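Morning F.,

Quick status update on the modeling queue. The single chain you submitted on Monday has been processed. Sequence for confirmation:
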Amino acid sequence: MKKRIAFIVMLLSIASSQIASADSGVVSASSLNIRQKPSLSSSIAGSLSKNAKIDTLGKEGDFYKISYKGKTGYVHQTYIKIVKSVPVPKTVPSVKSTSIEKYGQITATDLNVRSGAGTTYPVIGSIKLGSKVTMYENSNGFYKIIYGGKTSYISSLYVKVTGQKIVNSNSTSPVTKPTTTPTTTPTTTPTVNPELKSTGVGTITASDFLSVRKTASLGNDSFAIGKMYPNQKVEIYGEQNGFYKIKFSGQLGYIYKSYVSVVNTSSNEAEYVEDGQQYNTKTTGTELVTYSNTFLGTPYVWGGATPAKFDANGKYISGGFDCSGFVQYSYKNFGINLPRTTMDQVNKGICVNINNLQKGDLVFFMTNTAAPAEVSHVGIYIGNNKFTHCPKPGDVVKISELTGYYKENFVIGKRMLK
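Structure tokens below.
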């Protein structure tokens, strides 16, 4: 019996390791570093010039795997323009099992691909509008897919299911299983599950906690799918039967209006929504940069999100910013409500290449040596290859060049303004 179990485990391992993708791309940066491992902190093995063509061997996180001088190397996805993306069938042995495969089409402009079934898991990539995907199961409002050769998850809110089939394998004969890869040219614009527009931002006022319900009802037929806690901020997407509609753990939920204080609405000021667009405002990047630079010299305070206070003699009293608090406060002045942390802010807005940054864009970096694969720092691009940020304890809000250390550890730019 032990040998049989071991054999089945071996077959499953082989099956999970045989998914691959074949992408052809062109380098869009003037010079792109090739790294030995899929990390910006890894050693540089060489470089590729602009417009150089590559064939990828797969994808690990934000890096494409390539062959370079007979060895495996990695290049960051930000600087590769994919020109061809096709499924590559691999023959894998099957074991006795029955499952349902669903087929769908992405309805969001750029749908985040996460490492786990929830919004708290890191984003490892994105899939374009209209792309076709194969989904294997639904967990916590997220479909499991294969992305870049790995098990990944996408929110079910932004996928139109177009079909399904029952997969029943009763032998160990080989089966052909296609990978799920994003298509570069969408064929249609689906109308199912459109992007929700935010109508405001609220703060939880309940004394203990506020239940998030499956439907807009207090009846027994509407069960709780989670909880929110006092002073927690939440994006609101409409009202129904005395409840606010929200997004919670990748699915829609409802919270009772009596325990929510709305702190921002879209009637008279800018409204921030998940795709990074804004409405009812004429804020420009120049205006945002001018305002954010008024805080130059403000001391770094871990967890700080308010300007510093000084007495009549210029002696520091209280307040200050950390990097994400500085960014959040600057944008909030114009009615644009960003999340509080760097890890959440990087999931907002529209992706921008380092060569196409504009004033007001957010710039993200990997600077934490304890977690080199995580985005850990953010600043505001001010033009002329410079950005304003509040970097670390003992430092202040200042302007730095986007060169050297910061260019090497740059991850992505995000645009929040039209």
